[in-house]
């Protein structure tokens, strides 16, 4: 029995270590591949036109900053469309004030219908340009976001591109945990592109070809995570062999952190509900031999998501086994290895990060050895979210387009 315990802990540790090492390896491959694209000074062959869509519901406190960050982008050919989804605070009044300063701002005012309905309204009835970029009303874009995003779409096979999202400010522990998580997870996103397994083009700063969105039918309204659902809808419709779903790691967007453990739990529960819904809805892609899907997506990534959720359910048992081995044999090697690996992972993420002040970079390097602890907090949140999903499975199928707000 004791040998089985030891072997179980060793195998789990090896899996975690292999995942990190492969993540670093493939992330660096993609970083090197896009280095010329990011650093190149040559003018692109073509300048696309962009329609930036900002859906908003009761975002009076943040809407001005978000809209101004879009209106003042360092690019020539774009439009900004804000969809006020029946807000009952001062969102619309603040938008009208901004419109006085920037008459080119387009405001679409509609009765409350949910985020997906708002985005479809703008996509079908207002957007005029080739590429659609989506921005949350509490988030902001870096000034060169469109200039850099334009370079990725020089490749006509690129259908969608995710932006690199960072936490705006993190003065407290739970917020800093999210900041570290975003750095590490978005660095890991680099590794998905060489393997062709990208399946989430996140909502903040995400960019799509407008004609492809319209042909696929736009956003569905039966989900609380419209970005996950849309990506899988596009994958199901177009596949990922002829078309490309990429990560624009130098296109930076900033979003606020949630401020308490309870808010974080509610946010991640919503995300998990939405991901389960999308995976079930588009389950036909799993183990699908249709050549429009890469084997790495249909036979590796999508099944692995289910496997990792199962392993997460068993995680408390593995932790107890690891603690038992630690006490029984006094072997700290597994823990030390994981701490070092996660610390190295966080350091790589910061080393390759752009647009960081010297102070921010130094703080990240100094706290990198604690990355394992920070990510364990997120693991606890994910585990609790999983348990709640299992206890309320019927809620997965009752979802409708809705709004998520961060307390400020």
From TrEMBL:
A Pfam short name: Glyco_tranf_2_3
Keywords for this protein: Glycosyltransferase, Membrane, Transferase, Transmembrane, Transmembrane helix
Database matches in InterPro entries: Nucleotide-diphossugar_trans (IPR029044)
Transmembrane segments: 6-30, 310-329, 335-351, 363-386
Family: Belongs to the glycosyltransferase 2 family.
Protein's name according to its UniProt entry: Glycosyltransferase family 2 protein
């Amino acid at each position: 029995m004791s040998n089985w315990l030891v072997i179980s802990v060793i195998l789990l540790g090896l899996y975690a270590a292999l995942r990190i090492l492969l993540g670093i390896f493939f992330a660096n491959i993609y970083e090197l591949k896009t280095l010329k694209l990011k650093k190149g000074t040559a003018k692109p062959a073509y300048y696309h036109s962009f329609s930036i869509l900002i859906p908003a519901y009761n975002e009076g406190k943040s809407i001005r900053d978000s809209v101004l960050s879009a209106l003042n982008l360092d690019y020539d050919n774009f439009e900004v469309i804000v969809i006020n989804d029946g807000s009952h605070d001062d969102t619309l009044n603040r938008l009208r004030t901004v419109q006085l300063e920037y008459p080119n701002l387009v405001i679409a005012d509609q009765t409350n219908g949910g985020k997906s309905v708002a985005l479809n309204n703008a996509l079908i009835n207002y957007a005029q340009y080739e590429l659609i970029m989506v921005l949350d009303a509490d988030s902001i874009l870096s000034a060169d976001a469109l200039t850099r995003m334009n370079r990725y779409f020089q490749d006509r096979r690129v259908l969608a591109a995710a932006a690199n999202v960072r936490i705006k400010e993190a003065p407290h522990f739970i917020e800093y945990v999210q900041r570290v998580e975003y750095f590490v997870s978005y660095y890991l996103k680099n590794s998905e592109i060489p393997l062709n397994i990208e399946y989430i083009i996140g909502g903040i700063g995400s960019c799509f070809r407008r004609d492809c969105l319209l042909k696929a039918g736009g956003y569905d309204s039966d989900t609380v995570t419209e970005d996950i659902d849309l990506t899988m809808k596009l994958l199901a419709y177009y596949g990922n062999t002829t078309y490309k779903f990429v990560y624009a790691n130098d296109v930076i967007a900033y979003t606020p952190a949630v401020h308490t453990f309870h808010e974080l739990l509610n946010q991640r529960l919503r995300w998990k509900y939405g991901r389960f819904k999308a995976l079930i809805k588009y389950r036909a892609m799993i183990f699908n031999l249709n050549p429009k899907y890469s084997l790495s997506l249909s036979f590796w990534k999508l099944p692995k998501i289910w496997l990792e959720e199962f392993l997460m359910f068993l995680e408390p048992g593995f932790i107890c086994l690891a603690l038992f081995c630690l006490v029984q044999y006094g072997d700290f090697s597994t823990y030390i290895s994981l701490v070092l690996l996660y610390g190295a992972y966080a350091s790589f993420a910061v080393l390759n990060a752009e647009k960081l002040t010297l102070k921010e970079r130094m703080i990240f390097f100094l706290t990198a050895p604690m990355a394992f602890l920070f990510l364990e907090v997120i693991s606890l949140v994910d585990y609790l979210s999983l348990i709640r999903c299992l206890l309320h499975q019927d809620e997965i199928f009752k979802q409708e387009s809705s709004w998520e707000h961060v307390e400020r």
